[in-house]
Amino acid sequence: MSKRQRPLIPADDPFYALPTDFEHDVPGAIIKTRPVEIGFLGVVPQAVDATQMLYHSTAMNGEPTIAVTTVVRGKGRAVSAHVLSYQCAIDAIDSTQFPSYEFQRGSRFVVSVPRLEYLLVAAAVRRGWTVSIPDHEGLQGNWGVAREPGYHILDGVRAILNDEAATDSAIPVGLWGYSGGGLASSWAAEMAAEYAPELNVIGAVLGSPVGDPGETLRRLNGTVFAGLPVLVIAALTRNYPEVRSLIDVHGTDRGKQELERAAGMSTMQAIGAFARHEISEFTDLTMPQILADPRLQTVLDDIRLGGRAPAMPVLVTQSVNDPVISVDDVTAQVDRYREKGADVTFLRDRLSEHILLHPLAAPHSIAWLDDRCEAGLPGTAQPGETTTVWSIALSRVWLANVVELLLVVVLVVCGRDLRRSKRPQ
């Protein structure tokens, strides 16, 4: 593929341009669409049908805004029998890290998680799902903000149904994401009943969904994963005047420069650049002083998950020994949901860690969504049950579905058609 054939980065792509009259339509209304070619790792062309949609949505404080999703279907599948919104672990601010760009064939290669997550999208497509992969951080990379990711996710599903002129409100909708995608999916699960009550959301899989971003910020500060708190602060500075005020007053010149530099990095770049660094290196305050500041406390309270009970059944997966997302924080999120009456199945894994659990939990997660979609079953564990296993890979459900996932990997790497004549029982 020649250089001039490469997709434009979002900052230069007119498809992402904000229309002048976008405030005057309802959330989920489509502004424009275009076909795109999907390439695994940006290189291997995929035998799927893919469309991108620019649609009306809502920002965190209720203002109108726009968002983008990439819709992937099996070849020749025109109408959705069921829709899955898959939220990638974007965990970065720069728009070149968004799936709408990274999934396109010819996109500039960087090491990122969303590129590999296409394998899970493909697994869902093979099972007959129409998959929406929204840029859930919005066009500006609003990572970590409250509510807004949920709005973008739910409006992406609305856009698909609007595009198909769907009149069947019973079309099953599933939600799935891991880590930063689990955090975004949590917001969608929490907001669905209030914001999009017409959608038939039959289940949400929340993989390592963060739970308490503020506590995660405190715990990772100064560790090998310190780049993640730096990215969070950089994103919150853009979106919360309280954080901007804190940085304006107490940030050093070097600190402000480093936050600007982080805004253009991928997740892996930020982790490498800021490993073992302390946030206090960028300010004239210590980390306890920063966390105790009332301005930051207001923001951390706003972005903490668990303020609303998801109306649909939820499956949460989490590694007990996760060095990035604490099992205690996720347990607290589950407890907050259950206290409000939510149906949450909590599956904890002892032998994995943060990165490994994502692919290991995938066969179990997609089987649970299939159960919810096809038969209205409560999933593969008892509703409300907390189960701690040595390894999710030793379960009967995992063994029954992992061969299918491995086949999908082969099909994707070879660029072969994902369709099949019959879904597994």
Query: If strands are numbered along the chain, what order do they take across the biggest sheet?
Result: 1-4-5-7-6-8-9-10-11-12
Task: Kindly give the count of domains.
Answer: 2
Which shape, going by the Cα principal axes? globular
* Name given to the CATH architecture of the largest domain: 3-Layer(aba) Sandwich
CATH topology of the largest domain: Rossmann fold
Number of helices: 14
- According to CATH, the homologous superfamily of the largest domain is Alpha/Beta hydrolase fold, catalytic domain
Low-confidence stretches: none
Instruction: Provide the CATH top-level class of the largest domain.
Output: Alpha Beta
Structural class, from secondary structure content? alpha/beta
Largest sheet: 10 strands, mixed
H-E order = EEEEEEHHEHEHEHHHHHHHEHEHEH
> Mean pLDDT, rounded to whole units?
91
- Compute the number of strand runs: 12
The proportion of strand residues reads 15-25%
